[in-house]
Design goal:
The complex is a heterotrimer. Chain B is an alpha/beta fold. Chain B has twelve helices and twelve strands. In chain B, strands 6-7-8-3-9-10-12-11 form an eight-stranded mixed beta sheet, with helices on both faces. Chain B starts with a strand and ends with a helix. Chain C has an eight-stranded mixed beta sheet with strand order 5-6-7-3-8-9-11-10, with helices on both faces. A three-stranded antiparallel beta sheet of chain C has the order 2-1-4. The chains are: A alpha+beta, B alpha/beta, C alpha/beta.
Amino acid sequence: MSRPSETFSLKGVFGEVVKNPAGRAGVILLVMYIVLSAIAPIVYPYNMVIENWSSSTYWRENPRLAQPIWVKYLSGINLPENIILDSRDKTNPNVLKASVSLETVEYKEILIKFKVFYDYDDFPSEIALLFFNKFNQSNPYIKVFWTRPDGRELMIYSGMQRFRETTLYVSIDESVRKALTEFVANTTQELVDYPSPEVVLFAKAEPGMWNKDRAKILKSSSFGKPQPHVVSVRVFLYEGDADVDCRLIIYGKVYGLAGTDNRRRDLTMALIWGAPIALSFGLLSSLILTLIQTFLGSVSAWYGGVIDNVIQRITEVYMVVPFISILSAIAIFYRLTIWELLLAVVILSLFGSGIKSTKVLVLQIKEEAYIEGAISYGASDLRILLLYILPRILPTLVTSIVSSVPGFVFLEAGLAVLGLGDPMLPTWGKVVSDAYSAGAAYKGLWWWAILPSILIILLSAAFVLLGYAMDKIVNPKLREL
Amino acid sequence: MTQTLLKAENLCTWFDVRRGIFSKPIYVKAVDNVNFELKEEEAISLVGESGSGKTTLGKTLLRLYRPTSGRIIYNGTDITNVPYNRLRWYRREAQIIYQDPFSSIAPFFTIYKTLEEPLIINKIGDSNERSEMIYRALEAVKLTPVEVFASKYPHMLSGGQRQRVVIARALIMQPKYIVADEPVTMLDASVRVEILYLLRELQQKYKISFIYITHDLATSRYFSEKVAIMYAGRIVESGDVDDVIQKPLHPYTQALLEGIPDPDPENRKVLRKVPTGEPPSLIYPPPGCRFHPRCPYAMDVCKEKVPELRELKNGHAAACHYAEVFLK
Amino acid sequence: MSDKNVMSVESLILHYRTVRGAVRAVDGVSFALPKGKTIAVVGESGCGKTSLASAITAILPVNVERYEGSVFLEDGVDVTKMSEDERRQKIRWNVISTVFQGAMNALNPVYEVGYQVAEPLIVHKKMKKEDAMDEAKNALSLVGLPSDFLKRYPHQLSGGMKQRVMIAMALVLRPKIVILDEPTSALDVITQANIMNLLKKLKWDLNLSYIFITHDLALASELADIVAVMYAGRIVERASSEKFFTRPEHPYSQKLMQSVPTLRSKKELEYIPGAPPDLIYPPPGCRFHPRCPYAMDVCKEKVPELRELNPDHVVYCWLHQ
């Protein structure tokens, strides 16, 4: 009679895991996530994330609901990216700021010119002009002219600047609309009520130029020598030391590695940061619960009698009670942060089924001769539990920890989707939840929902694969298969 | 005349096997009214079949079980009812060697660690002294070179080698007596003798008392001078091994002897004269003498009265109403 | 094969594939079994004797690496060369049956004992259930169990009784050859003697031929007419019982005899130093040479050939060349 050499060392188990194809896949995936988690605080420092994730001003200059940048290459359509030109930028040849008339103490005229070479295959999503006004009492007056590559020019806005910072939302501004209605009428004799500026300004002067489905892009390169759009801002200042600067934002339709959501937030931040959050939530819950349950199961098996009875009965009650419902109820009444959520999950799963499986294992080990031998040379109960029994169940323990992580990852994501998660943290579940609330599925905003979902699934897959490989090794009966 | 080391009087170890906490107790009377004595530097074989109670008796004497009734006196001290946590000192005096060399040492300890544990737990010596003791123990059981063996794991050793480790572990505490529970049964025939002789040598060299539990009456002769035969929880015969084998005074011993073959080609031509039937249930044992249902000589008195273990001639005792008849 | 032999095994080889390499469990075993006689194959654990039982009946595991040689039966058929179907229908249980080691655990706990004994009849001989149960009753009485055992369940039987049931099952189709693989391990001495008595009676009454596999030399002498000693996958000595027990010739056999404690004679026991060899990388030449007190140079290089000392005593040892 002989037994195969049992792999009791964790190093041994790890070596075997890597040999197994499933284990290899799991390890590779896990390493990728760990790398992601390590990168997260470097690329997006934690404080910055917390401060800005919920703010609306931070993301102002991102396009709304933009697809990931790589869609351009996959689809072959040259989707527009953001074009931002700032009059304070002295080095850009496409930006010109100059005074055009004599400066006196009371009157100054400034001309800011932005040259935009536009060759994308699709229209911008929005256009905005930010004004930074320095004045004491006399408000500056501005006029904005737009010259298209085909030479047509129109004045899209004129008005007084009353505040330090004003924003002209070209896409929705009422006076711009009026100007454009007139422009369309003059150009193609079509009468439309609400033409989209970002379409009309960039469309070829043909019938239907106001309709984003029928209009064709007026590309700068379609002329012999590439012609830019020229946005001219004429500023009339009535104080000697007054000044106005301008920032033109032509919002694109793609942004970043993962696109943006309806609050213009760069989803890459959420996706990257989701990794350490999911990992630590999953691992911590799993670790704490498995350790506690192993301890309780071992104690139950070792001491038997009343202790065993009490622990087993409590466990049975726990197993019957629906803990998600309770958790949801708590989360509805109290807004929980992620750490409070963790604590609640742990408390509500404390006496789980792991106790019963550990008890069975320990009961078997307890009967082995070397345990009685240890008693016979005077080992204390605690010593036997820690030194003689624990190493036998360690491989199973670790496998169990690994295999239960996916459950917790999904739990956190699921709770976030239900709206019961941490409202402040950018977790994957939260992203999916936002996407769902905004009707992403119906509106074709695929990247918003699919990308975080894929990450959740792959992380779970990593642990499932690892757990599978480990289980095969640790459980000798499965070895033959 | 050596001193009595260990004495058991009317010892009973019964196990409660009832199901459910509210029903009446059902007892497996594994050891039932046993009187036993072990002297210093003495080796006794405890022979019986599985279910005879020999292992239970050995473990009860070691106080690994708590006796249901009766007394155990060790070196003058009554240790019958001492609670487990106050028996630490006894654990150093009495050691056990197990039957299964595969499960009696922790598979994830090196041999060194396996031998060190008893010393650490009982706070014997500092780490240097312990190292000394471990290497000396390994030498005593002839596992040399000692450094090589000390760093191995159990699965790297053969059954015989593992059993030596178990013996070394028992010896390292320098006990006064050792209970060896079928120490060679699970070993190959060729290794068995080696280990048996090793045990005998150690017993004589270190002057340790031994209780050698086995089902094989033939090996007991090679190990000890005295033997006690157990049947259904009782000692039915005891005495010098040669006496008992030459002139068995109890029908069960006679049956045992008849049933054990020696290598002899004539065996195949004859049937052995052994009683039929099986050893009795220990929960509802037969009244009176427990062997009576299978005994070829059973009389009425055997069914009613329990025979006492009484001495018939120097040191040779039997628990049979008709033992005198067999004396002739 | 001569008329008096009911089985003739020639150069039987069975190797298994394992992670570490090929286990050469049966490495060229030959013997002849005369009708109505018993051959005891004696060896320690790890010598391959249980694999021998599988090899003879051609019940091969999935990881078999090599299976060669011949097992000739009375009418000249070779079990090793038959198809699985043929073996199942014609040979196993019909001509050769086996009582396995640890057979007590081979009984199905949810079926009545009588049904289990009758099952081979229903399956192999396509008997009707009533007839089969009648046969089962006969088989049980053959082994000394009364007919009310037909309706009992295994857990109601003691170890000895279960072993008798296994023997009844092996005999229910009245085979000519029974392979007994350690049939009495885990039984107590008196029950063992009773079972051996039963086996002796059956052998005499039914003229059975036994292949009795055991590690216990003394037990072997209870049934054996011929003793074959197996070491590391090979037979090292084969002799009639009389010749063997009085004068074993192979050093291993001698040492084995000297290591058996005897009740009736007072002798000093001898032991064999070392351990049985690894069947994956056995020693070259004679496999016993590392432990043999008489080992010579040739023993380390060349496998010993058969040497016939007597018509009924052969040995494989260079000492006798």
